[in-house]
Amino acid sequence: MNPKTTLITVIIVIAVVAVAVSALILTGILFPPLAEVHRYSFEEGMEGWAAAGLDLEHDGGTIQWSIERSQERATEGDTSLKFFMDNVNDAGKIWIERGFAVESGRTYSVSVRYAFASADFGSFNLWTIIAGAMPTKPETRDDLQPAFQDDTGNGMDSDSGYLWLEKTYGFNVNPGSDGMLWVIIGVWGTWETPRAYFIDDVEVTIRPA
């Protein structure tokens, strides 16, 4: 083969390979986008999470509720978060929320995994778990709607005390124009009774979708 022809062929092959590799990189096939993994065990405080609530009014006042660090039980270290609410108005919703800075203008896949301790048994009078990822802090019931998940039952048919369960939820989120997305974890009181739950070992994984 003519040396000049051979050189041209090599150049063409290199160019084609370079284009193919570039396309694979751009589409994330060759080098998938790196995931950010954030873990929280609440041993050193709230670790950037803040307590929030909605629909807590009753008889001109506010129902009793709290989200505090507790050493009553834990799965990671000695401390968890205790969620307490005396749900006399049959409507209270309490949660923790935390913002995460990302790049605006793109979609993110968010995985939320945590340990959840519940003493609720059977299938009657269970509350509803709140877990979600969204572009802004929730301010209304409509904002919370996508975060209503499964019930708070621990899977037992009779009273067995508190049992730890692993909860995992996935979401696709377009962050707000400020480049923030918000993760929330909590409970919605769907029965008029006081109850407490515990959350520990929270892991939030964020990667470009």
- Report Rg: 24 Å
Indicate the structural class: mainly beta
Strand content: 35-45%
Please tell me what the overall shape is: globular
Low-confidence stretches: 15-27
Which architecture of the largest domain does the CATH hierarchy give at level 2?
Sandwich
Write the layout of secondary structure elements.
Blueprint: H1 3-27, E1 36-40, E2 50-54, E3 57-58, E4 61-62, E5 65-70, E6 80-86, E7 93-101, E8 108-118, E9 128-134, H2 141-144, E10 148-151, E11 163-173, E12 180-188, E13 194-208
Antiparallel strand pairs: 1-13, 2-7, 3-4, 5-6, 6-13, 7-12, 8-11, 8-13, 9-10, 9-12
Characterise this structure:
By secondary structure, the chain is mainly β. The chain has 2 domains: 32 residues; 174 residues, Jelly Rolls (Sandwich). Helix content is 14%, strand content 44%. The chain is built from 2 helices and 13 strands, in the order αβββββββββαββββ. Strands 1, 5, 6, 8, 11 and 13 form a 6-stranded antiparallel sheet that branches. A hairpin with a 2-residue loop joins β3 and β4. The longest helix is centred in the N-terminal third of the chain and has 25 residues. It is globular. About 6% of the residues have low confidence.
Quick take:
This protein has 209 residues and is mostly beta strands. 14% of the residues lie in helices and 44% in strands. It folds into 2 domains: 32 residues; 174 residues, Galactose-binding domain-like (Jelly Rolls, Sandwich).
Features:
single chain; 209 residues; Jelly Rolls; six-stranded antiparallel beta sheet; 2 helices
